[in-house]
Amino acid sequence: MKVIKSLKLAVVAALAASSVSLSASAQDNTLLGAGSTFVYPLFSKIFAEYGAKTNVKVNYQSIGSGGGILQLTNKTVDFGGSDAPLNAEQAKKIGVPVLHIPMASGAVVITYNVPGVATLKLTGKDLADIYLGKITKWNSAEIAASNKGVKLPDLPIVVIHRSDGSGTSFIFTDYLTKVNPEWASKIGKASAVNWPAGLGGKGNEGVAGLVKQTPGAIGYNELAYAIQNKMAYADVQNKSGKFITPTLATTTASSNVELPANAEVSLTNTDNPKGYPITSFTWALIYKEQKYSDRSAGRAKELLKLLWFNIHDGQKNCEPLNYAPLSKSALKVAEKLLKSATYDGKAIL
Questions:
Q1: What does the angle CA 9 – CA 14 – CA 15 come to, to the nearest 5 degrees?
Q2: Phi/psi at 119 (nearest 5 deg)?
Q3: Chain-centre distance of CA 37, in angstroms?
Q4: Choosing a second label site near 199 at 20 to 30 A (CA), which of 64, 92, 193, 292?
Q5: What is the C-alpha separation between 70 and 145, in angstroms, rounded?
């Protein structure tokens, strides 16, 4: 009886070991990501294409940049998607180096609903003063000064902002902080701030809905969303003093500047005279050292191969979906970052 019992235990142990091995193998064939809602349509297209070529599946949950960072912190995903770099508190909580790999860039555009006004130009200072509640009429002297020959109505400005925390709000408030000292001292930059004026809408759709149904409204939306919803949006003055129309080309131009080696850079108020000033990278965040928890070397390799595909072959999917492809300088930095990732101290790529 003891022999039979021992044999049974041995068989059970062997089956368990086999199951663990199979589970790990299957797990390595499905990569997990979570975060940015902005990049979700692009990721969906690229990951489907990559899966068809490699049989590697990618499960990406569109839960917002903050959620993606939290899941990366908790090590429940292979990568996080974020429209803002880690802040000091987030980096401290993770406690080890995290690589910020640029995936594409996007623009935040100033959407508006002003009857009879087909084109509109705004300076950064005036835009911040509108959101501070200091400029309250569309025919104000400040707005008129930038719009010679445009008949601006005597109409109250209705400020619309996001009611939820978002990467879009971070990009927008980061820009306002750079171009208006009063905004910088009173409000600052964050994914959610204490807005001094206006009405809140949840998500891009909430802001867009309020702008479209409210004469005199001004809001901010991602370029892709504004294009898809046929919304009017303003030209914004950049650091060089030029009023720039937000397009994929001017968005890419904003990142075609000298970038830091870690790519943790704010692109707002770009130095490029051809660049639109309210832009940002969207990043994939990964641990620099990939040997953690029970990760296999194979899983780490698959993750790096996926992200390499994203910044090369995957870029062809950007423009059709209204994302700005990586500039030459951004691609160069992204490649170096991926090559710096290690498994047990050794380079993966």
A1: 100
A2: -130, 145
A3: 8
A4: 64
A5: 45
pLDDT: which is higher, 49 or 21? 49
Between strands 346-347 and 342-343, the pairing is antiparallel
Give residue 167's pLDDT: 83
7-15 long-range contacts (CB < 8 A, ≥24 apart) are: none
Average pLDDT of every residue of the chain: 90
| φ, ψ (nearest 5 deg) of residue 110 | -95, 100
Residue 228 pLDDT class (50, 70, 90 cuts): confident
What's residue 96's pLDDT? 98
Under a CB-based contact definition with an 8 Å cutoff, are residues 218 and 160 in contact? yes
Q: How many helices (H) and strands (E) does the chain have?
A: 13, 13
Q: Could you read off the pLDDT of 93-109 as tens digits, one per residue?
A: 999 999 999 999 999 99
Locate 235 and state its tokens. Answer: 């030209």
End-to-end CA distance of the chain: 54
